[in-house]
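Internal QA ticket QA-208
Title: Verify multi-chain structure generation after dependency bump
Assignee: T.L.

Test input:
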Amino acid sequence: MAHPADMVEIWRGRMVESRHRGHAVICDSRGGIVACWGDPEALILPRSSCKMIQALPLVESGAADAAGLTTEHLALACASHQGAPVHVGKLARWLESMGLSEADLRCGSQPSRDRAERNRMICAKEAPNQLYNNCSGKHAGFLTLGRHLGAGPDYVEIDHPVQVAVRAAFEEVTGMASPAHVVDGCSAPNFATGLRGLARAMAVFATARSDAADARARAAWRLTQAMLAHPDLVAGDGRACTELMRATEGKAAVKTGAEGVFAAILPEKGLGVALKIEDGATRASEAAITGLLVHMGALDPAHPAARRRLGGPITNWRGIATGAVRLAAGFA
Amino acid sequence: MAHPADMVEIWRGRMVESRHRGHAVICDSRGGIVACWGDPEALILPRSSCKMIQALPLVESGAADAAGLTTEHLALACASHQGAPVHVGKLARWLESMGLSEADLRCGSQPSRDRAERNRMICAKEAPNQLYNNCSGKHAGFLTLGRHLGAGPDYVEIDHPVQVAVRAAFEEVTGMASPAHVVDGCSAPNFATGLRGLARAMAVFATARSDAADARARAAWRLTQAMLAHPDLVAGDGRACTELMRATEGKAAVKTGAEGVFAAILPEKGLGVALKIEDGATRASEAAITGLLVHMGALDPAHPAARRRLGGPITNWRGIATGAVRLAAGFA
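Actual output:
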């Protein structure tokens, strides 16, 4: 097993104050490695980076069409949204259209990460509800699939038909049996896989076509297109996924996951990317995916969305530039 | 140079999801190494972990006594407080007693980290001011010393008499010339040192006595006693420094710093501790100092303050236990 590679440095003045190591791999859709840093076989929990995989059964089963879901709904199913009114409103109407409500979700309540909305709720003494959970779109997708399958309400149980379908799709696109699963932050199962497996899955999405014979490939194409069409719904204003998708102008659909994971689908190149920062830091996973997108020619390093995560100054409480985030020598 | 040591593991289910590495050293007051993990000579920026060192000239110069400062003021000078009303109120009165105001600070405005106070200010549309900056106590100390020295208002400049005095004290207690300095989050200079130097300095504090012949030793004793007497002023309710100092019942004065630094003074043992997490993660520095305090017999691992940072369950948005923070094999 290869050691993690040095990936990201946090500079302050002329010193490297902190360092982040990790694993990254660029794959084709058969799992062939195009480039890698660290250990491409590192076993990881993809967390929210695999939401588009978790949404495959929703589309390929016909459940999405039966429920009349649009590309906005599909983008929300792939989202870690920040609980802005635009997200919560669309999700409330989605559940309502199925005769369901917030109480049918199993993701738990989370305060909004949209500053204005959070502040509004604090001042109105309005408690957050499950719609505000960053995973509520994924859960709305699970509920839609569960209803289509005629299954019971406890869709986060590991042996529920929804999760059985998710696991099957997950193992097929990653190309490996998942050796373990855990309970995610939103209480849904999250399946472990190799980093190369996650990158391979992203390449399966990248090479999927609208006219494929295979229902799963058509589903992968639709989900990728939905993410690319609605970067604002996949995360929110100011968020890395939203800003980087806008900046890459259709060249990459990207998705973050907790504990330093990032995945990217590059349709023009037919390639997938996955990375995991060993220590779980989001600042490092965002810098690393920015570096990889630049490396692959999908992102201008001078774009403000790139500079905010890589190279641009770190400033202090008085606005004084104190340092910068940089890639380690030898990475990307 | 020794590699960083594995220190802290973030478990989810039966998997280690993320890992933190770092350096740690336990020293006596002459810099003799009692125990170490990783590289004891690692060059670090101590950040806020060295505030008690930065407060030495305030006390040893006689400025603190001339200004009538109490142990509460000295605790605030060593603090990274969370901007609760208790902190901000005492600091406002301190400045007022010198005929100064919030506008004389150079630390910059930071929102309160005390939830009730932050929410109150949001709803009252009250902007944060510099008193709320976690470093405003250190800066009030700098202002007090500057006035005593008859120096100008720009006390964060590297050649200002206050910073010249801080640097001299810093280099003497760490036992080494500082090879570099940077601009800290609060705009004050922060001096680089070896990890062993920081631990040695903590041991200088640990062995200081009230009846020492040396004014610096008496100052170190007074500052340590002030921290131990007012753990609530050094950080705030729920914070690691406050909770761990309360839990160790006088056995340790501890201080966190940005980017994964922690320092501890153990008067009963006459020893100092310093640690740096390579990736800068606070969750890991808190777990590691907890482990070291337990290792040194200063903290009960079953105490809630310890369990919250090490061993106790990580829970998700529905309160389900999903994992735990544990020490890596071979550390502490």
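Spot checks passed. Chain A has a mean pLDDT of 97.
Status: verified.
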